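Pasting as-is:
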Amino acid sequence: MLEVKENLKSALHTYFGFDSFKGNQEAIINNVLNGNNSFVIMPTGGGKSLCYQLPALLSEGTAIVVSPLIALMKNQVDAIRNVSDAESIAHFLNSSLSKTEITKVKNDISEGKTKLLYVAPESLTKQEYIDFLTSVDISFFAIDEAHCISEWGHDFRPEYRRLREIFEKISNVPIIALTATATPKVQLDIQKNLNMLDAKVFKSSFNRDNLYYEIRPKKDVEKEIIKFIRQKEGKSGIVYCLSRKKVEEMAELLNVNGINALPYHAGLDAVTRARHQDMFLMEEAEVIVATIAFGMGIDKPDVRFVIHHDIPKSVESYYQETGRAGRDGGEGECVVFYSYKDIEKLEKFLQGKPVAEQEIGKQLLNEMVSYSETSVCRRKYILHYFGEEFQEEKCNNMCDNCKFPREKYEGKDYVHLLIKTVLNLQEQFKAKHICAFVAGNIIADIKSYKHDKHPLFGKGKDKDENFWNAVIRQSIVGGLLSKEVETYGTLKVTKKGKQFIDEPKSFFLIKEHDFSNTDDDNENFILNGKGGVFDEELYDLLVDLRKSISKQKKIPPFVIFQEPSLKDMCLKYPITMDELTNIQGVGTGKASRYGEPFLDLISKYVEENDIERPQDMVVKSLVNKSGLKVQLIQNIDRKLPLEDIANSQGKSFQDVLDEIEQIVSSGTRVNINYYIDSLLDKDNQEEIYDYFKEAESDDIVESYHFFDGDYTEEELRLMRIKFMSEMAN
């Protein structure tokens, strides 16, 4: 036995240059070499690959490794070729190879030169490959990223479900399945599907004690990310975004602010992706901004931070993506910017999928919400999720909840009132309506439904709408309420919620972070990103100033500065033209035309009230810097139809309208008369134009009701753009 151990250690040193195994590696390798099935659950960075690479090098025949990504296969093959003097020792077989290359691979395997063959599951379904592999000596099958087998895994791939029947056609040899993320439910599903319930399970601890976990409200998110990265100067990091568009924007924004960043997503061509990945690995770029297409198999040990601009789709995805930080055991900070609006977006993405898939997707999302909003130790929550017990004292303040504990309080009565309200209102309304109802605020919908006359109206008026929104979110997490996706978020009471009404039990609520005040909720300007209070006194002064200028210039107040711009001024106190152009919706044109009296007022106010201004206004904005915006204006100057412009940029018509509105509200004149003339005759145009001249507000819904629906929302928006361009700019 000692000799076997020494032989293994000697092989480890010869091939990989290591003197000792990590964790369970040695036991796993012995199990594979002894011809037994193995199931390996090992965290990202724990050394999974070695568990099948070393036994493959020591066994007769070729080991078949099933891998989900072409880029990952190439990395793994390159790594193995580096430990040998022969290129033929490892190959991959996938759709990227030519016929000549495939022939070369087959010849090397037939001649016994190849120890590891990496294949995509789709390749294994081809009869020609099955026939070929049946004719050669196979040592064992390895399935990397085995969670792809399970419908309950975060990255389910239907083709993975067929692997067992394909293996049985090829050869009756042992299987080793490996994953970094598997809950007990996923683990059982994988073993059943592969018909390997007899497998020896090697489960390493999921605890990564060098990683710091933190959730922040998604407020001023771009600015906060730039500040964070600037404090990590010279260190490598990854910023994950959900969409390709956001990846491109974020990478550009970071570069504008002096941070060397590169985008990475599946929409880029393979050459660009490979170049960006290599530049990051070689430290020619500090930061990669990526969709989840980046990272699988990326073995960069010194990634010092992983930032999620958008909430991940599941705890598994989150764990895997954060696991790319601090693989060398050094510092690794993991920050997620959380907004409940992101969850609603992800829920909408699930629509149209099969019902079973929707249900699973929603449950995985709910777990992510629960993780984000929980007040317990984040490390304890993650480990519990993966079936591992952990005492929070051992966290050593390596998560925000342990470092800054949040207050808990008994919330049974609040939850009871909330559920009772939802039931009394026939489960027909969304969170916003319920919050206003319980808090006793008379908004338009409350009046139209005569809910202000309802006996329960205002029963919770001692608390504000933000408080009740928090109770709703935590009741959803607690399984007492659910949101119906089909009706865009109508609240329903679950079976558990109805039981709670009959028998109320203790229900602890958490004093939450300010997750209600995110960039998505412009109506909730209560706190700024630094915790400063929104200045209502200054706001009133700015509104009065705007009114007097509008009378003097005979234009509606909203033409000068819109409401979100005034509110932003009350958070940031701009006193120079440069600072004013960093205010939401204010470009250089609008700043120079109307800014002077506003800056004078704010400057005087700051001095008289001894205001300490936020000192983080140096973040440069992308407004007017984006090549696509310049291209948009040029295309309008060329009088191209807006639909054609949208198609050429791969956007919807609504996206282009949004962008034109942003450009105009920032003070740049845009002439779309040629397009409006094709839709509306002169009389209609004059009628809408005159409306905006007299209107107190530029609200499209109000204008729609004023004209009794005679004009579409798009026609009204187009005319508002024309009006703002001519009057304001």
